[in-house]
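I'm curious: can you give me some protein's one-letter sequence along with its backbone structure tokens because I've never seen that pairing?
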Amino acid sequence: MTNFIIKTHKKDTLYAKSHIFILNKGMNSGKPLKEACANCFVLIFENQEDAENFYFIAYSMWQAKFWHVHLCGSVIPFLRLHDFRKEFFLKSKQLMEEHETHLKNVEALKLLEQKEQQFQQNISLINDLRRVILHRYCSR
């Protein structure tokens, strides 16, 4: 099992080792992030490969709404560090035991993320083209 550190991110802190961030407030609690935000935990790893593997574990847990049962608070729901540590460690250990399946799923998720980015770029280009055509049409 990979060793990693989970702690609350402090503003303007720079991390020397590979890391990912996990949002801890709101209905998107548990969402993995590449960049820090005000309300997040940081997971620090020894190498980039481990960080990437655990990013996709966190991503799958967030997409499955795994963290919704652990949210506290009545107005703005939030995820407690203790609950996150305990549950994330157990679930990641379980998923990493099936390492071959995990690697296949990570590759599939990477491919889907790449296709989604291409799709978003195409949508943006279509919208730009639509604006140009409408601008030409209306400026006559």
